[in-house]
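Quarterly update, task 2.4: zinc ion-bound model.
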Amino acid sequence: MKTVLSTLCLVLFITTASAQNPTLREAIASDYQSHLGPLFDHWHRNPELSLVENKTAARLAKELRTTGFEVTEGVGGTGIVAIMKNGPGPMVMMRADMDGLPVEEKSGLSNSSTSTQKSPITGQMVPVMHACGHDVHITSLVGTARRMADMKTQWTGTLMLIGQPAEERVLGARMMMKDNLWKRFGKPDFALAFHVWSGGEAGKLAVSDGSPYAGADTVDIIVHGVGTHGASPHRGKDPVVLGSQIVLALQTLVARELPPRDPGVVTVGSFHAGSKHNIISDRAVLQITVRNTSLETRKLLLDGIKRIAENLGRAAGLPEDKLPEVNYFEGCPPTINDAKLAHRLRKMWTEKMGTDAIMDDAFVARHSKGMGAEDFPFFTTDPPIRSVYFSIGGTPKKDIDAEEAGGPKVPSHHSPLFKISPEPAVTSGIEATVLALLDLMQQ
Ligand SMILES: [Zn+2]
Ligand SMILES: [Zn+2]
């Protein structure tokens, strides 16, 4: 009896699991044809710059409100918070960023943007383009909202959807948090986000149990010297020499202190001092960017920069009140996936979307060697929230294969030639998100 029952349960389980997904996929596909496709088209033609995503936010709010969400606008600037309460259970957040970039679109697509907007930075009119694919994210967010509202009997808990401004300036998440996001709306138990990726095959998903985006920090070092005549160096303290020693010693942080398998970058991008051949100046300024993929590496590099700069100042004979001044500017922590949760979701996605829907790990590793940063971790680092950030490919397989075979390179994000195949990217983004939400908020 036990064997018969468990066989029956297994059959039932397989039937339910395989029946649920085609139904979900069909619903998303038909919603794309009638509603989401035209919505993507609208957003692609009408991108807006960071901090002035006014029309985008208004349309997103309207879409989510008509789907039955309780929507608050103007959170941390143009941010949107949409809540759907559906009984007891966890609160899960899904975030989509909304901003475009000051780039003139040259993709050749029929729905290319010809929009211009006054830049909040320069005050000049500039061309604007969704050159990073954030239009895919907001369209998917609307699609996710519509499916989750439709499938209310299949989940329990509170769903929080976030439309975030100014990701491209690494400002929006911070601004929403400063607007008391968790105090006003509740702190989620889990947080999710995805980015469309032009380097990956359209519609395929990639997820790692590590750090999909690096942390980025900015550091300035002001090297104080004692100015004097260039022909009498013994009468001063030369900040150019000390600054140069600091630049070289900083190279040892990554090369000699960081474990070889932990990635990190310390780049001195600018070094300014002096005004004339024969004057030893009294000041040099170094500007540094620091990248890392873990909080431990971040601390090691930032502490190391201060230690090296100050102690080289001591070695140069500077008094304690004239040591090099190290100033940190609030950067961005690394995006770190909760390894267990990433594992669990990956297994679930593989089962429900099929092995073919997941990108090959070796391919992803070959193509993700940069140290780009994201501001999503401002939501998830302090206080910590279990989170997973995944990617959805956006480029036709033939173009990816051609690049792999040494052919033309797929245009990268932020390029005027950037283009995404919206239908597979948006629909897979919705399917993966909805499946993850159902898994986290199962009854
Ligand atoms: Zn971007
Ligand atoms: Zn982006």
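Highlight for this quarter: Residues 132, 168, 413-414 surround zinc ion (ligand 1) (CB under 6 Å).
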